[in-house]
Amino acid sequence: MDYTGNWIYLALVVFSFYGLGMLFLKMGLMPWKAYIPVYNFWIYSKALGKPGWWGLLMLVPGVNLMMYGVYGFLTARAFNRTKNADMALAIILPYVFFYTSGRRADLKFSGLEKYNPEPNSFIKNWADPIIFAVIAASVIRGYFIEAFTIPTSSLEKSLMVGDFLFVNKFAYGPKLPQTPFSFPFAHHTMPLTESVPSYMQWLKLPYLRLPGFGTVKNNHIVVFNYPDGDTVAIKHQNTSYYQIIRDLTEQEAQNNPHGTFSTWHHEAWMRVHQDVKTFGPVVGRPVDKRDHYVKRCIAIAGDTLRIKNAEVYINGKLLEKPQNLQHHYFVKSTTDFVTQEWLDQNDIYVTEAFKVSRYIDKRDTLLVMSSLFQNTNNGIPLPLAERKALQTTFNTNDTLVYCLNLTALKAK
């Protein structure tokens, strides 16, 4: 891992301590105290008339970056550097602002109580409370609770698509951010964009999780960063990038049976990375910026897991089946047997336009087409147990493979 950015940031922090020492001298404080991490900002907060515990926030990764902006803003007010250019420098580059303020012999410490805000200046009056509100929300979201929306139906009926839930991060211990330079409240992509990252990777931190109140147990529902999400094709973010490569590698093998695996894999890789119109740009993501998944943990470290005849055994014991359990049933056919009569017999109703996702290779050959049939109630999708789905896959020898998503008891 390249830690060049970390060393640059460390140099900026030390440089800010040097500037803070000169400010301490102007304020009648001992300059050497500016070189003691956390304690320096504890003292500085009190000297500015703010709570001393603000200094403790300098220990929190990500939050400390925003706190630097707050201290820069307060410094500009306390030393009467209130021009717009000075305010911007104080918020964006407080490390430099401390130094330039300390070097100026004409600047005197007047304190925040003597600062007279301009009634028509939004930045000068509202930047401080807005920044601190963002900091408070970031601390709560990053270390205590975070809101999520259920995107898929894998946990119905326990959790429904569109459900909102709050995750208690102290249950298993909050994880410190590994890419602390990020846009507030955005996960991996900037709002209103499709592929612009909301974070910067030049400052990286190692994996560290704080102690929690417990550990993951069997049948707990947990939210986690999807391990397979380190690389994604932007236009197919809901599909594993590696699964796309595997699928296209298999298609290359069918198209060129006399080739080698390395050739098939290379052709698949080139198609995904070069066909930006179909797949979008391919991007990598750090661990803490991978997509969030919510799943039920059926086995933990030390357990034995066995799947036999579509039944799951944990430590030799059959796992209890939830009500309305569903399975995928694959039916291979050389003809298209999906007729309206067949759909009616299986309670599958086409009530909305097909949702089609497809891979098109450079020869414009249709490789995969998935169609979702579902019944709805006034346009609202019904719960999993009340709907049926069908997926059609075409391969190169014109064989049709239907994947039926049906309730297990009905299918039998």
Task: Lay out the secondary structure.
Blueprint: H1 4-26, H2 39-47, H3 63-78, H4 84-92, H5 94-103, H6 122-143, E1 145-149, E2 164-168, E3 221-225, E4 231-233, H7 241-255, H8 261-274, H9 276-279, E5 282-284, E6 292-296, E7 305-308, E8 311-314, E9 317-318, E10 326-333, H10 340-345, E11 357-360, E12 366-370, E13 376-377, E14 380-381, E15 389-394, E16 400-407, H11 408-411
Antiparallel strand pairs: 1-2, 3-6, 4-5, 7-8, 8-9, 10-16, 11-12, 13-14, 15-16
Helix pairs in contact: 1-5, 3-4, 3-5, 3-6, 4-5, 7-8
Pick out its properties.
412 residues; alpha+beta; 3 domains; three-stranded antiparallel beta sheet; 11 helices; 16 strands; 32% helix; elongated; disordered C terminus
Structural account:
The protein has 412 residues and is an alpha+beta fold. The chain folds into three domains: 4-143, no CATH class; 148-174 and 209-226 and 291-322, no CATH class; 323-411, no CATH class. Helix content is 32%, strand content 17%. The chain contains eleven helices and 16 strands. It has helices at 4-26, 39-47, 63-78, 84-92, 94-103, 122-143, 241-255, 261-274, 276-279, 340-345, 408-411; strands at 145-149, 164-168, 221-225, 231-233, 282-284, 292-296, 305-308, 311-314, 317-318, 326-333, 357-360, 366-370, 376-377, 380-381, 389-394, 400-407. The strands form seven sheets. Strands 7-8-9 form a three-stranded antiparallel β-sheet, with no helix packed on it. A hairpin with a 5-residue loop joins strand 15 and strand 16 (400-407). Helix 3 (63-78) runs antiparallel to helix 6 (122-143) and helix 7 (241-255) crosses helix 8. The chain is elongated, with a radius of gyration of 29 Å. The protein starts with a helix and ends with a helix. Residues 349-401 and 407-412 have low confidence and may be disordered.
